[in-house]
Amino acid sequence: MKQDYYDILGIGKNASTAEIKKAYRKKAIEYHPDKNPGDAKAEEMFKTAAEAYEVLSDPNKKARYDQYGHAAFEGGGFGGGGGMNMDDIFSQFGDIFGSAFGGGGFGGFSGFGGGGQQRRVKGSNLRIRVKLTLEEVANGVEKTVKVRRKVQAEGVTYTTCATCGGRGQVTKITNTILGRMQTAATCNVCGGSGQTIDKKPNEADAHGMIVKEETVSIKIPGGVEEGMQLKVSGKGNDAPGNGVPGDLLVAIETEEHNTLKREGDNLHYDLYISFSEAVLGTSKEIDSVTGKVRIKLEAGIQSGKILRLRGKGITSLNGYGAGDLLVHVNVWTPKEANKEQREFFERMQNHENFMPNPEKSDKSFFEKVKDMFS
Ligand code: ZN
Hints:
Layout: H1 5-9, H2 17-30, H3 40-56, H4 59-68, H5 86-97, E1 126-132, H6 134-139, E2 141-152, E3 157-160, E4 169-176, E5 179-186, E6 195-199, E7 209-220, E8 229-232, E9 248-254, E10 260-263, E11 266-274, H7 275-280, E12 282-286, E13 293-297, E14 306-309, E15 325-332, H8 339-348, H9 365-373
Helix pairs in contact: 2-3
The structure holds zinc ion (ZN).
Zinc ion (ZN) binds at residues 161, 163-164, 168, 187, 189-190, 194.
C-alpha cells in the first residue's frame, strides 16, 4: 500500500502551490543523501518525497491523483508516481532550489552511493505535439512521427579527458543552503562525459553530433486528455560519447468531435426525433467512437430519456474497461403547423392519450441526472 502523497509531504489537500513547494524543500533537505550518507531509509524517503512533489506540483497530475489516487498512474506510460531515478530528482532541483543545484545542461550533483561513481551524461529531451481525434483518444492509437534527433556522427573517435581524467567531474567545496558541502561539479572541458573528441568528420558539430531524421512510433493508450505528456524513453537527442540518449516528450492535443461530447470516460450524444417518431417508435443511426450504431426507440418514448450504451465510451486510461455512450432523446416539437395539422391536434388535445400521465418509471430530469452519476 503506497503512502498518500499529501501525508508524505505533511500537507493538507488544500495546500497552495507555494505550500507544496515549501513542504517538499523541507523534506528534500532533511533526507538529502549528502546529509545522510549510507542511510537507505533516508534515501527511500528522499525518493518518495520527490515522487510526491512531482505529482502534486503538476496541476494535471494533481487533479488525476485527487480523483483516482495512486491508481491514476498505474498502467499507461505516464511518468509521475513511481520510477523516478536520481537524475530525475536532481533535475527537479533547479526549480526548487534555484541554480545552486543542478546547474548546467547536464546536472551537477555528486551522484550517489559514496562518490567516485561517474554520472552518465544524458542527451537533451525533444518535444513534439500530437493531435488526436476523439476516436483515437477513445480506442488508443499508434502514431508514427518524424523526429530530427542529434546522433553521433560516423567516424567520431574519443579520447579520455585530460582535465578530469575521464571521471566527468571535478570535486569542489561549495556553500549551499545545506551548509558547506563537498560537491562534484561537472567537468566543463568534456561536459561531464569524461571524453573529448579525437577525430570527427567535417559535417559533425563540436560534440561530434549530426542531426538525423528518424521515424518514431508512439503507442498512445486510450483515455488520454488534452495537455497530457507522454514520454518515449531514449528517443531524444543522443549524448556525446558514452552518454545515454534523452527522451522524446509528446504533448497530447485533442480535436473536438462534431456530435460526441466527452465527459471523463463517458460520451454524450444529443438525439433529436420528430413528434411522430416519438409516437410511432423508430430506429436511428448515431455516431460512436467505433463507427455508426443503430439504436431502437420504442413507441411512446419520452423527451429527456437517456439511453445508455455500455462500454461505448472512452477506454479508461487505467485499463479498467471503458465508459458509456449516453444518448439524450429530444422530441422535436413542430414550431409551425398548417391548417390541417392544427385541426388534427385540436381534435386530439382532449383525448386521454394526449394527457401527460407520468409513471414512476418516467423519472424527472433531476432524478435521471442523479442516477447517471451514482
Ligand atoms: Zn573532463
